[in-house]
Each structure stands twice: as structure tokens, then as C-alpha cells.
Amino acid sequence: MAGAAALTALSCAMLSGGPAAASVLPAPYGDLNADGNIDLLSVSSTGALQYWAGSGTGSVASPVAEPSAGDFTGDVIEGAGNFNRSSYQSLFLYSSATDHAYVELGDNTGQFSTANEVVVPPPSGEASWPVITQLVSPGDITGHNRADLVARVGDQLEVIPNVALGHYGAPVAVAGSGWSGRTVIGVVDATGDGIKDLIARDDATGVVWLYQGVAGGTFGDETTRVQIGTGLDAADYPFVITKGDADGDGHADVYAVGASGGLYLSAGNAGGGFGAPTLVSSDPAWTGITALG
């Protein structure tokens, strides 16, 4: 990751969003350009960030390269989240090379730059950030009106609450164990009860599970989870993600990147499950990506 400025008073001013941001309505979760549609970010095999604007019907536009965003080789990214309570979605990333976490503040165009990057201090009580192998922002699930994080750390899944400007509380283990063999697809309200649920897949089998959300920012575990899909094994689809309704029918959908490239959409249905993956983008830039957010 490109070097980041220290978290100084200037950085805090950047995180606060500035006075102009308050007059703009916040973009929906996962909408990086404020057009009402879910967008995606990926990292190429050379470490370059790529922005894919969603259409609202499930497809995405051709990728836009983001050379100003820096080098993301080996980084774990999450391209959604109102991390500073501004009007814009930001990019959160964890770099194992530096053992630091960063936020690159968005501007509602889908573009990011190291000029708007700040270092995020470790969670409360921690000397450094844990070694994160997957990162998801569910929005606010802990009641602090800020974008929290769900992180895979070893065999454990942790909720890291965003408790104050640029500060995260102590990680809380959730949803049992066994997470080194699973991928979090996303955190959305799949049951319609107003509480966000955890959607995950078993990497080896491709079975998709619902871990029902509990008020306060936790979820059920493997003893209470419910199967809601199949066919998304990691060998065929190394990257999977949901940020909500991507095709405009009111149901959360899953995007999956094929092992040989291509972007697929598993459309959600009224029963809370997902259909078979359908190719929605054959752009060659999907081949060889190393991260999806």
C-alpha cells in the first residue's frame, strides 16, 4: 500500500467530512457514485484498483482504472461504508505488509486517491490491527451510527465496532468458529425483520448459509444457521459478495467472480435464497483479480 499520512488534526478534519458534506444526502450502501445503484471495486493482478459502476439491472459498466488510489498488492479491501458519517462512501483497506488499516475517503464519483487517505488506529485495547484475511462493512450494526467492520481473523469472525471518529472498539467474536474455511458474502437484512443478517458460504462445498442477525451487532452460529443456496464453491468462484439488491427487484443478490474470469450474478428471490450464477460481464479485467469489495 502506498504510504499514508499520520492521523493528525488534518486527517481528523478529512474524516469529519467537512461542512459541505452535511448538505448532501448519503449515498446508499455500496453506491460509490451516488446514482442509487450498487457498485464494485476490484484489485488487479498488478495491484491496481478498478471501479465498476453498477447499472441497477445487475450488469456493470467497463472498469475505470484508479491510478491515484495507490498500489493495493496484497491488501484486503471493502469498498462501501460511511466511515466518517459524511455523505460519501469510503474505501477501507487492511495491508498485511504494513500491518495498518487505512481509509480513503470517497467523493461520490467512485474515485479514490492516496491524497485523501488516513491511517486508522488499531481497535481499542489492541497494539496493532489483527491479521485480517477478509473484510466487510455491514454499515451500522452496533448502534453508533457509523460503519462497523466484520473481519475474518484466522478461524474466527469478529465484529469491530466503529465507536467514534476514526476509532474502533475492541473486536467481538461472533458466529462460532470454522471461518478459515468460509467466506463472508455480505451482511444484509435477508429476513425482513430490520436486523442485518450474515450471509456466508462454505468454500469447499459452495453451500450458502444465513446466520440470522441479532440486535446489537451479533449473529447466530453453525448450530442455528439455515442453508439458502449452493453452487458457489471457491474453486469455481473465488470471490463472492453481496451489498444488497443489484438488479432492482427488491431482493439481495450475490455477485461472483469466476475462476477463469467473468462476473456472475446469483439473483435473490422472495424466499431469501439465490438462483444459479448468470454471466453479466465478460470483461477481461475480471481475470486474475486479487480482491473484491
UniProtKB/TrEMBL annotation:
Pfam families referenced in this protein's UniProt entry, alphabetically: FG-GAP_3
Signal peptide residue numbers: 1-22
Domain of life: Bacteria
Spans through the membrane: none
Keyword Signal in record: yes
Annotated SUPFAM superfamilies: Integrin alpha N-terminal domain
UniProt KW Iron-sulfur keyword: no
Keywords per UniProt: Signal
Classification via InterPro entries: FG-GAP, Integrin_alpha_N
Xref: PANTHER family: SENSOR KINASE-RELATED (PTHR46580)
Protein name: FG-GAP repeat protein
Native species: Catenulispora acidiphila (strain DSM 44928 / JCM 14897 / NBRC 102108 / NRRL B-24433 / ID139908)
